[in-house]
Amino acid sequence: MKLERIEVRRLRLPLRFPFETSFSRTEAKEFLLVSVSADGLTGYGECVADADPFYLPETNGTVLHVLRDFLAPLVFRHEFTHPRELGGVFARVRGHEMAKAALEMAVYELQARREGAPLWRVLGGRGGEVAAGVSVGLEKSDAAVLEKVENEVAAGYRRVKVKIKPGRDRSLVAALRERFPGLPLMVDANSAYSLRDLPLFRELDAFDLMMVEQPLAWDDIVDHAALQREIRTPVCLDESIRSPDDARRALDLGACRIVNIKVGRVGGFAAARAVHDTCLARGVPVWCGGMLESGIGRLANVHLQTLPGFTLPGDTAASARYFEEDLIDPPVVVSKEGTIAVPEGPGIGHAIVWPRVERATTFREEWRR
Ligand code: OSB
Ligand code: MG
Predict the structure, then answer these.
(1) How far is the CA of 190 from the centre of ligand 2 (A)?
(2) N or C: which end of the chain has fewer CB within 10 A?
(3) Is 109 helix (H, G, I), strand (E, B) or coil?
(4) Does 336 qualify as catalytic in the annotation?
(5) Between the CA of residue 308 and those of 114, 163, 190, 286, 344, what are the distances in Å?
(6) Which residue in 29, 100, 161, 262 is the catalytic one?
(7) Cβ distance 86 to 301 under 8 Å?
């Protein structure tokens, strides 16, 4: 395959409800959409970088720079037979996983369209359905979080994750556990704590949480290993795993017992597969994280989590939880049983609604071979 054209758009989609974590509060999703064209077909990849570097270091600005000045020239210079080769093409560029992933995901999506196959087939997954979990942000009060969780449980989600931060942890978890005794429940701290908070995590052991996600620093695995040795609840790593090697090292060190896989965070589908394969070989469960993606990235996540190691529900919720109007038709819907149907059409498998993309576009640039 010889790519002929790459287009990058910046989009802004208002969220139906603000989403608050320990690191920020978001009222609109601002992201880059990468389109790649060859031989009369185009594939699409949604970038998970934000406008700011508060989750991980990359931003929409750094992604645009690295795509324009490094990754696009590299990919135009190479001819390849399968998108799995792009990891090698990009290897000289250190870091910038979200930029690499956005371009590589677009090429995978194009590959699927070339084969007339759903993305899951190119990734080595399966059709059918996947189990949906939901991520509930911080609210003004514990009562407000409880009300949100009540609604999500009624909607059918198979697992609920709530965001925590210092001062908004013990009482919230205790209240949730009292109200929902049997609910598969977990917490995500987005790196808001340190090892000095060990007593808190010992207390949380009493609440039968499925896991505690990324409690300590975004670039740490050593302290997480120390924490995991001291608590019963499984630690799950998100921010700390940015490559297949990171996953191997974290598991060797005992830094976690569960891994959250986000394609954008680990540098693409091939890397996500490699993280998945490492975990599967060691009996470590994985699940697919979310980044408040539009339907384009959301569907990519649906296809990915049909791989056999994704044994836990992901953070892939219904389009309507996030956006008044998603960019895809039909939107992603979650059944009363908490499942999402895996698309069977070519590529991501649902149509992109171009008038909505145009309306949300705030910037556009294209490069040619
Ligand atoms: O840590 O998993 C996270 C959203 C933005 C950035 C980081 C995270 C999240 C979520 C939301 O938890 C998951 C989703 O619903 O897409
Ligand atoms: Mg997380």
Answers:
(1) 6
(2) C
(3) helix
(4) no
(5) 25, 27, 27, 10, 18
(6) 262
(7) no
pLDDT number for residue 79: 95
For residue 23, give the ligand nearest its CA.
Answer: 1
CB-ligand 1 contact for 20 (6 Å cutoff): no
**What's the mean pLDDT in 267-274?**
98
Mean pLDDT, the chain, as a whole number?
98
**Atom 4 (ligand 1) nearest CA:** 291
**pTM across the whole model:** 0.98
Question: Which one of 29, 100, 161, 163 is the catalytic residue?
Answer: 163
Summarised one tens digit per residue, pLDDT across range 25-82 is 999 999 999 999 999 999 999 999 999 999 999 999 999 999 999 999 999 999 999 9
Cα-only R_g, the chain: 20
Q: Quick check: is 163 catalytic?
A: yes
Decide whether any atom of ligand 1 lies within 6 Å of the 152 Cβ. Answer: no
